[in-house]
Amino acid sequence: MITIKHDGCILCVGCSSVCPASAIEVVGTRMKHFPEKCIDCGLCVKICPANVICMYKGVKNPKDLPPEARG
Amino acid sequence: MTKNDHDVIVIGGGPAGATFARLAAQGGMDVLVIDKRKEIGVPVRCGEGLGVGELVKQGLDIPKRCYSTQVEGSKVVGPNGREIIWKTDDTKGWILERKIFDKWLCELAVEKGAKVKTYTRAVEVLKDGKGKPTGVKISHGGRESYDVHAPLIVSAEGMESMMARQMGFKTVHSLYDVDTCYEYEMKPYDHENLIELYFGNKIAPRGYVWIFPKADKKANVGIGIGGNVVNGKKLGGVDGAAPKVLLDEFIKNNDQLKDASTLLDFGGVISVGAPINEFVQDNCMVIGTAAKQVDPIHGGGIGLAMECGVMAAAVAIKAHEKKDYSKKMLMEYDKVWRAEPGKVVAERLLLRKVIEKVSDDDFNHIFNTLTDHDLKAIMDGKFAGPVTKVLAGRPQLIGILSALIPGKK
């Protein structure tokens, strides 16, 4: 799964436009990630112009993220 | 059969959706436009340039408040600093204030009778037993969602195009077919009311740096680079395209900009690939950037979006009159688009794919050889003349440039 630092996100939706799994969408006024759909391809990380996306390969549940990635 | 609430639901209130809505409403259709944003046109994620052509064609008189400044033409700069200035009646345009411009287009649609709803998100496309769209599940302000029905659904969603995906269109982008962009609004910058474009693989690999003049000595200074370019480490140690790093480097080396202030940071990802294979299915159409109708050279999509809105609305009105929203009926829009703007987009895509193979040294040769007339010929898709000139001085480029000569593809 990925994490998004919402503070730095510029809502360009670039990540959802390249996501082959439709695992990132705009909900309300921020990007929302659906870990259950994520296939850990990392395309969103590579493309993000604001560099706010971080990938945690193999993690499916936000509870399993390392402490620094939560919040 | 479910009762229809509207004749057409348009998802997205950008230039494509608003233009479609205005003309469809004018043609007698009951139009609902939904936009997920709280305010139409916000956030801005665009260089904001628009040529005069499309507005003139549609007979629209742009109010002064919708643009920051008028531009006369462009200045294209090669890696060695050589400039080609291209300034004619055809190259006039505006640097828009997108927030105001987009809202104005929506207001025009409202004046013709369309209904626009902001902060309203399409959650899901509703379908009948055969998988044909019958409506959209929508949610206002994050509240409980409800169903709205119409015989025609138009996706004008822009880059995200999630509903278009649900309707079966292949709108997902590959990294190769997008540019990732970063942009600052900066001040002060003394400009000559020209759009400035800087090319070079060092400056902006598979893309360019742009300086778009704005009023009061302001400018949008941005960069777009290929999505498949790797020039930085991303969070988590992933290699990726870092446009901001290159843009900061460019600014550091620019005498005027290095001491200028930034007033706004923004960015985005733009489509620079081919349009999607089909723009219509039974009961649905995809228009504008959602259909990847974007110029692959400069990434501009506003003019194309508005043009496509006109074409799609004309077909939608016919479909409405005949009560026939089948793919066969709607396909006319697909055909009309591909016959005209589609041709230009295809030429530009070919050009983009050639340009990305050219080295900085060859770029310098090209810039030393070409004139503003050649530039115009290239943008008109008449490649033969300029290609011959370039090859005269550097025949070894034939391998790369032959793709531009008809019959040698």
UniProtKB/TrEMBL annotation, chain A:
Keywords in UniProt for this one?
A: 4Fe-4S, Iron, Iron-sulfur, Metal-binding
Gene3D superfamilies, sorted: 3.30.70.20
Tell me the ranges covered by the 4Fe-4S ferredoxin-type domain, including all copies. Answer: 1-28, 29-58
- What superkingdom does the record give? Archaea
List all membrane-crossing ranges: none
Which Pfam families does this UniProt record tie to the protein?
Fer4_10
Q: Name one GO molecular function term.
A: 4 iron, 4 sulfur cluster binding
Q: Which InterPro entries match?
A: 4Fe4S_Fe-S-bd, 4Fe4S_Fe_S_CS, Fe-S_Ferredoxin
Cross-referenced PROSITE patterns? 4FE4S_FER_1, 4FE4S_FER_2
Q: Quote the PANTHER family the UniProt record gives.
A: ADENYLYLSULFATE REDUCTASE, BETA SUBUNIT, FERREDOXIN III
Name listed for the protein in its UniProt record: Electron transport complex subunit RsxB
Automatic annotation (TrEMBL), chain B:
The signal peptide here is: none
Output the Gene Ontology terms for molecular function: oxidoreductase activity, acting on the CH-CH group of donors, NAD or NADP as acceptor
Domain Digeranylgeranylglycerophospholipid reductase catalytic: from-to ranges: 177-265
Q: Which UniProt keywords apply?
A: FAD, Flavoprotein, Lipid biosynthesis, Lipid metabolism, Oxidoreductase, Phospholipid biosynthesis, Phospholipid metabolism
Taxonomic lineage of this organism? Archaea, Candidatus Micrarchaeota, Candidatus Micrarchaeia, Candidatus Anstonellales, Candidatus Bilamarchaeaceae
Q: Which domain of life is it from?
A: Archaea
Which Pfam families does the entry mention?
A: FAD_oxidored, GGR_cat
- In the UniProt record, does the keyword Flavoprotein occur? yes
- Protein name listed in UniProt: Digeranylgeranylglycerophospholipid reductase
Enzyme Commission designation: 1.3.7.11
Task: Please give the Gene3D superfamilies that the UniProt record associates with this protein.
Answer: D-Amino Acid Oxidase, subunit A, domain 2 (3.30.9.10), FAD/NAD(P)-binding domain (3.50.50.60)
What Gene Ontology terms for biological process does this UniProt record contain?
phospholipid biosynthetic process
